[in-house]
Amino acid sequence: MKADPAVQRRLLDLADADAEINRVAHRRRTLPELEQIGAAEREVQTKRDELVVAQTAFNDLDREVKRLETEVDNVRKRETRDRDLMAAGGPAKQQEELEHELQTLARRQAVLEDEQLEVMEQREALETNVTKSREAVSEAEQRLGDIQSRRDEALNELEVAETRRQNERDLITKSLPDDLVALYERVRAQRGIGVGLLQGARCGACRIELDRHALNEVREAAADDVVRCEECGAIMVRENK
What we know:
Blueprint: H1 5-29, H2 32-87, H3 92-175, H4 178-191, E1 195-198, H5 212-220, E2 227-228, E3 235-238
Parallel strand pairs: 1-3
Antiparallel strand pairs: 2-3
Helix pairs in contact: 1-3, 2-3
């Protein structure tokens, strides 16, 4: 295959564009924000789970407080009724029974109110836990959002860089012969790099030095001959041709 030396040197520009596109792709896959997002998402889920536990405990205790409030209210209503009956007068035996029941109700009310006070204090502590858990969830979600914003910004920058390089690549390939581009693409697909600058006796693609026989063949080739490295198969661009 033959190609003007200046055209062959354009392959180096094509290789530079491809290398930059590869670096952008690698950067996209290895953004630190991606790992940070995973950790932040796990933290958000953990904080949400903790909030559910705290909220459930608070709700359970809140129902217990309401139950006790209902019981205390019922005791007070019963007490009011008994006192009204006593005030209305009646047989001595009934008055005695009502008095006995009022004493029982007073003791029951005292027990319930003590229990109610204790449970209300516990509920207050759990309410504080719920508030703190909500704040922890909000903070974790905020951190996640911040990281996602940084990721999106980085991805946008990479997208711009990739698009610019891809446009440059398209212009270069359009300026090159189809058969030369096809050879470059084939070698690049097989070896990862399709062209390298020959520096002294060293191939710029695989970094291996050519032996004397191969180097002599390269030097004796015409300026427009497309020469390839016998080690890696890459196209070798010669500076002195």
